[in-house]
Amino acid sequence: MGDANDNIVYDSGKGRLSDLWKKEDYWAIWLGFILLLTGMLIYFPMGDAATKAKIVKANATLTQESEKAPFKTIQWYKALDAKKRLKGTSSSIGKTIKKYTTKPKKWSGNPISAFYLSPEEAKVLSAKGEAKYKTAKAKEVALLASAQEAQKMAAAVSFQDKTLNTQAVSKIDAWRTLHAKVGKLKKKAKVKPYNLLPGLALFMAFLACFFGLGMHFMGEKFTAFAKGFAFVFAVAVVSYVASSNATMKHYGIGYAAWAIAFGMIVSNTIGTPKWVMPAVQTEYYIKTGLVLLGAEVLFSKVLSIGIPGIFVAWVVTPIVLISTYWFGQKVLKIESKTMNMTISADMSVCGVSAAIATASACRAKKEELTLAVGLSLIFTAIMMIAMPAIIKATGMPYILGGAWMGGTIDATGAVAAAGAFLSERALYVAATIKMIQNVLIGIIAFCVAIYFVAKEEAASGRKVGLMEIWNRFPKFVIGFIIASVLFSSIYASIGKDLAYVIIDHGAIRGLSKIGRGWFFCLAFVSIGLATNFRELKGYFKGGKPLILYVCGQSLNLVLTLTMAYIMFYLVFPEITAKI
Question: What's the pTM?
Fold first, then answer.
C-alpha cells in the first residue's frame, strides 16, 4: 500500500504462500473471478432447452431464406431479430441487477433527472415521444408492405431478374433503416419513472464490502476503508452525472476525464481529507476491472478479423513502443526511464490499462503513472472526435478507418464510440482490433519486467535473478489471461448463438461489464484525489512528456494506417470482403 510518494511496487516479497491473500494483485484476481463466477451461475442456466429450440428455429429460417434468395429477405431479418431478442439480461434477475447498478441517466436541462423522474414527468415525456413513435411506426408499416410486394415480385420469377432483386433489396434496406429508428422511438414513447438513489446507496454498500474484504486481509481497517469509500463513490457518481449530460455525450467527454478532474479539484483546493485516503486505491480498483476485461477478450472474435487484424495490432504496437522509448531516451533524453516506458506503453498499446501494467512492471512512480494517464485521456478525447471526421472527409473506406482507429485510439470505449460514428462494420472492425491489441497487456508487462530487471537494473550494479522477474511481474495479468482462456473455451464449446445469450448478453454485459465500468471510474477518481499539481510540475520540464506522446502517436497513426491498408486491401482482400 505504501506512502503516496512511493514508487508503485507490487509483490516485492519472495513469493510467500501468504501473498495469495495479502497482496493486492492476487485480491484483484479473487474478486474478479468472484464476479465472473457469479455471472456464470446466474446466466448460464438460461441456456436451457427452450432457448436452444428458439435458436434452432431461427437458424433454420435463416438457412432456408439464404438458400431461397440471393439477398437477405424480410423473413431472414425477422428470424435474426428473433435471435437477438434472446438475452440473459432481459430476464427478471438481469433487470434487477441493472436496476441496482445502473449509472445516472442522460439529461440535458435538470441534473436531478439523472437520478429521479416522477410519474408525472414520465407521462409528459411519453406523450411527446408517443406522437413521433406512432408517425414513424405508420411509415414503417407502409415500407414493410412495399418491401413485401417488391420481394414477392422478385420471387415470382425465382429471383432471376436482377432489376427486381435490386428493387427488393432497396426497399428492404429502407424498411430496416426505419425499423431501427422505430425501436429507439418506442423507448421514448414508454418512459418509466425512476429513482436511482436507493439503488446507488445499496450498490455503494455492496462495493464497500466487496473491496473491503480484500483490504481487511491486506492489513487495513475495514471501517476506515468503508468510510473513505463513501466519498470516493460519491465523486464517481458525480462524474457519471457530468458525463451523461447530453452536450458532454455529443462531444465524447466521458466519465474518465470528469473523474480525474473532480478528484484533482478536491486534492488541489481543500486537499483530499485524510479519512478518505484509505479508499484511494487506484491500482486495486483498476486491476480488478482488468481481470474482468480478460473475459471480454474472446479468441473467436480475435479470429473473426483474422491475420489482417493480428498484423495491425501485434506487429505495429511493439514497433511503436520500442521506437517511442528509444526516441525518449536517445533524442529527448528523458531522465526517468520508468516514465518514458509508462508513457510509451500507454500511447502504443491500449491507454490506461497498459499504463497500469507497465508501471507495475518497471516500478514507475505514482506521479509518472498519473501523467501518462492524463496525456492518454486528453488525446483520446481529441482523436475519437477528429479521426471519424477525417475518415469521412477523405472518403476513406470505413473498414480501413475502423482498423486505423482500433489500433491508435487508446480507450476501448472511445474506440467503440468513434467506430459508431461511421458504421456498424467500422464499429465491429475497430472494436475487434482493439480487443486483439488488449491481449498484449500481459505480454508487454512481462517483457518490460524482463528488460528492466535484466538490463536497466543489472547495469546499475544490482544483483538480479529470475525470481526478481517473477516478483516484478504484475500478477493480476495472470487473472486477465485465465479469464480470457476460460471464457474463450466456453464460447467455442457452446457456439456463438447460445454464447450470445448467456455470455455476451449474460455474464459479461449483465454483470462483468457493469462492474468493470464502475471499477475504472473509482480508479480514475482515486488518481485525481491522489494527484497534486505541485508534484507533477517537475515532470513537465521542457514539455518532454508531451513531445514524446505527440511524436509516438504520430508514428503510431502512420504505421497503423499503412499496415491496415496493406493487410486489409492488398494482402487479404477476401477477408475484407466478408466483413
Answer: 0.81
